[in-house]
Specification:
mainly alpha, 258 residues
């Protein structure tokens, strides 16, 4: 079913159901039940006369009911088809999540290298010793299909991951260019690296929430807790957040701000 004007077809069907259902109930009462009880003459003759007098209206009502049934059947079939498409796309989601996890872990190694140099010699310009990881690409068609067919809350969650990923890729690229260009007047500060670690931890925490869902578990889009971030920092990135300056307090303050 396509969009009808600026209102989606599903919305039109809901409006028709909301208006049509009580209207049909009233019609059944007034046209099919009441005539049997209001006549002093033989009931069947009076009922026939009523139906004959309102023949055009009855035909219109029957056509409306038929259309309403057809719209609901079409909506049901479309919903089922959407569910099947999402199941097919979701079957590949664990592969996409694993690819993103691998990239995030490589990103953390890159950031840790920059952090260690800044921490050991704050006045020196860090030298890139760890190659900048290549951005993931195989996840894109899988996420696209999942976003296309998922329920709105799941689709929005996946879209948030994609948006955060694009920002992270751009930040790392800018940092790499800055450190690779001796003529650049831009500086990389410890607070920059710490904020990038936080954003990276958030992305990994969101990915960790998706792994059970990708294996047919419940979908959890609740607010992330510090334990979610710590699991991302420690279990996935293999680092202690206490070793990255004030990353622990930085993360807790960011969580408290929502």
């Amino acid at each position: 079913m396509k969009n009808l004007g600026v209102i989606k077809s599903d919305t039109w069907v809901l409006i028709l159901n909301w208006i049509g259902t009580p209207a049909i109930v009233i019609y059944v009462g007034a046209m099919l039940i009441e005539p049997w009880f209001v006549s002093n003459v033989e009931s069947w003759d009076y009922v026939q006369a009523v139906w004959d007098r309102w023949q055009t209206f009855n035909a219109a009502v029957i056509a409306f009911v038929s259309s309403l049934i057809a719209f609901n059947i079409s909506r049901f079939n479309e919903h089922k088809q959407r569910e099947r498409e999402f199941v097919a796309a979701k079957a590949l989601l664990p592969h996409a999540l694993s690819e993103l996890t691998k990239y995030f872990k490589e990103s953390s190694v890159f950031l840790k290298d920059v952090w260690d140099q800044l921490d050991s010699n704050p006045n020196a310009r860090p030298v890139i010793q760890t190659p900048l990881p290549n951005p993931p690409k195989n996840y894109q068609p899988i996420f696209k299909e999942c976003i296309k067919y998922a329920e709105p809350d799941v689709a929005e969650y996946l879209a948030d991951v994609v948006r955060g990923l694009q920002i992270h890729i751009a930040r790392l690229s800018d940092m790499s260019q800055t450190l690779s260009d001796p003529q650049s007047s831009m500086m990389v500060l410890p607070i920059n690296v710490m904020s990038y670690f936080y954003s990276l931890g958030k992305l990994q925490a969101m990915i960790n929430r998706l792994f059970p869902f990708s294996r047919n578990g419940p979908f959890d889009d609740g607010a992330l807790t510090y334990d979610d971030y710590r699991a991302a920092y420690s279990a996935t990135f293999d680092l202690w957040p206490e070793d990255i300056g004030d990353l622990v307090e930085f993360t807790k303050r960011a969580i408290s701000r929502g």
